[in-house]
Amino acid sequence: MRPPAAGRGPMGGRGPFGSHMMMGKVEKARDFKGTLRKLLRYLDPFKVTIVIVILLAAGSTVFSILGPKILGGATTKLFEGLLAQLSGTGSIDFAGIGQILLTVLGLYLFSSALGYLQGWLMTDVAITVTYHLRKQIMAKINRMPFRYFDGTTHGEVLSRLTNDVDTVNQTLNQSLTQIITSFVTVVGVLVMMLTISWQMTLVALLIVPLSFVVVMIIVRNSQRFFAQQQKFLGNVNGHVEEMFGGHIVVKAFNGEEKSIRKMAEYNDRLYGAAWKAQFFSGIMMPIMAFIGNLGYVGVTILGGWLVVRGSITVGDIQAFIQYVRSFTQPITQLANISNVLQQTVAAAERVFEFLEEEEETAETTSPVKLEKVRGEVEFRNVYFGYVPEKPVIHGFSAHIKPGQKVAIVGPTGAGKTTIVKLLMRFYDVQEGEIRVDGVDIRRFSREDLRRMFGMVLQDTWLFNGTILDNIRYGRPEASEEEVIRAAKAAHVDHFVRTLPDGYQMVINEEVTNISQGQKQLLTIARAILADPAMLIL
Q1: 3-class DSSP state for residue 352?
Q2: In a domain, 199, yes or no
Q3: Domain count of the fold of the chain
Q4: Contact assessment for residue 51 and residue 125, using Cβ atoms and an 8 Å cutoff
Q5: Whole-model pTM above 0.70?
Q6: Less CB within 10 Å around the terminal CB: N or C of the chain?
Q7: pLDDT digit string (tens) for 13-63?
Q8: Residue-by-residue DSSP string for 106-149
Q9: Are residues 337 and 382 in the same domain?
Q10: What is the largest distance, in Å, between two alpha-carbon atoms of the chain?
């Protein structure tokens, strides 16, 4: 999350002390320190780069802080020269002013160059770390036991792979260097303000506690409304997705009116919570602008009095006002960053939890390889339960001879799909054994075992790609002629040739541009092309 920019200035709008505060409830990690240590271990190879980034960020900030003080000298020269010109005792020193302006320009250019370089280096670190995290997650997915996916929603896994890793990336890319620049800015600006006038600094600092008191009061009152807003927004999104996905059923059972009433109820709740949340969020800036403008008034009046007394110059007032405008923004950024860090560590914790999940049982160190698979399958007194204490298969035995066709029938929940999962070693049996051609399937590598079977699931799965590539999924090296032969065997070829672009037609991400029956036929063609020794339908 990017912290908001500073305010506009004293003539209305945002005052110098006005800035947005992060709203809403922040998710926190259960083990903040432990997760942070793990995250830092990922940064260990980049220690030298990060040190360089810190030095560059600090240098860039210091040079930008020096600018207003030096620029104030140009204002003073211009003011004094103008007075001298009016009184006839001198003229404006344009050469001196030009030299000061060139010096400031050089400082700002150098500061920008350092800032660009540190940003480029930190982006490289962030992208590299998240690249390796995603690679590890993808490799981990292929090692996860089937029961993990049975008990975890797709959205949960996708959220860890995308949203959580993106959160880590954004924090590394933005917030890490912002901590350095914000801290250096606060300290540097405070020092520069004190060198100009301790009295004006005291006036400026008196406004800061008042600003934070107002912010905390507003945040405390608005948090519950932002939480409600997120909850009701989720209800609205869920209802829309549900109605869109099941619109045929809704229309078939005349459920439109009920759906509209439910949507109106969710929408009304969202409206009420969002209105209150945005009201509290909206009143913050006018109040902060008012407080900020009070600060400007106090600083300006005191500064004018000090100029009259000869304690400071006009250029000092200009520089001081610029410093005041720069002072509160980094303080607010640091407050926001603390929330961002909480969110980031919580996201990293979810990623590390996934990476530390229990994996499939290890493969045998010396797997058996069959020269020719005959297709004999035997279940011997098999016991299995998804929860070990609650077996769903009790002492199951069966013997299927090569070439034999066997139908497994039974009511819903009897264990038909479970038997297939055990045969494919998506799960391992708890007692007994399963043999293929007389060999316990645990003695095969999972890859070799699954290559023996072709499987067409009840829930068809096709990916966003051409029909040709979808059929070829089990055998990527298959020629187009082989794909067409398999398609003809599965009675797919005829309907494919009636489609636009035929075998080159792209199936969309939602797989809605072909019918359910056509999906099933394509998966059968895929299984036929793989040419397995045994086929499960």
Answers
A1: helix
A2: yes
A3: 3
A4: no
A5: no
A6: C
A7: 333 333 333 444 445 557 778 888 888 888 888 889 989 988 998 888 888
A8: HHHHHHHHHHHHHHHHHHHHHHHHHHHHHHHHHHHHTTS-HHHH
A9: no
A10: 117
